[in-house]
Specification:
By secondary structure, the protein is an alpha+beta fold. The chain is 46% helix and 33% strand. The protein has one helix and seven strands. It has a four-stranded mixed β-sheet, covered by helices on one side. The protein has a three-stranded antiparallel β-sheet with strand order 2-3-4, covered by helices on one side. Strand 2 and strand 3 form a beta hairpin. The chain starts with a helix and ends with a strand.
């Protein structure tokens, strides 16, 4: 056999090994990508839940202390929030991830009014007079 034929055979064998390895790794890569996306979705929902918990705890504290009590809290929101609703004693953040919408809800024992942010980032909210108001961004 000529030396250049041996080199060509070695190159083809190397390409076959690489192709088979890539073929076998494809399902692992796809599963890893799905796991990363699921983790991001879960993290977004946890951030919203933590923000709602901070807001409701502060609102309960202000309500218990009575007028003119006020408190300013800061919280972090993900970019996947599509809507926020405040109705009577209910706070609702709609979080859209992976083409599905999940509602994170918090209930209070008293009515509240005001507005809350939906944009991504760190926010501050002033809670007083049983109202929720958005403050300037930190």
């Amino acid at each position: 056999m000529r030396p250049d034929r041996k080199k060509a055979q070695a190159a083809i064998e190397y390409l076959m090994v690489v192709a088979i390895a890539l073929f076998l790794l494809t399902p692992v890569i796809l599963a890893g990508e799905a796991a990363i996306k699921d983790t991001q979705d879960y993290t977004d929902r946890l951030q919203v839940r933590e923000a709602l918990d901070k807001i409701t705890e502060a609102a309960k504290l202000v309500y218990a202390q009575g007028e003119p009590a006020r408190i300013t809290i800061s919280f972090l929101l993900p970019g996947s929030i599509t809507n926020v609703t405040i109705v009577s004693d209910t706070l609702l953040y709609a979080v859209t991830n992976s083409n599905r919408t999940n509602d994170e809800v918090a209930y209070l024992d008293f009515p509240v009014q005001g507005n809350l942010p939906t944009s991504r980032g760190k926010h501050a909210a002033c809670i007083g007079d049983w109202q929720l108001r958005q403050s300037d961004r930190d």
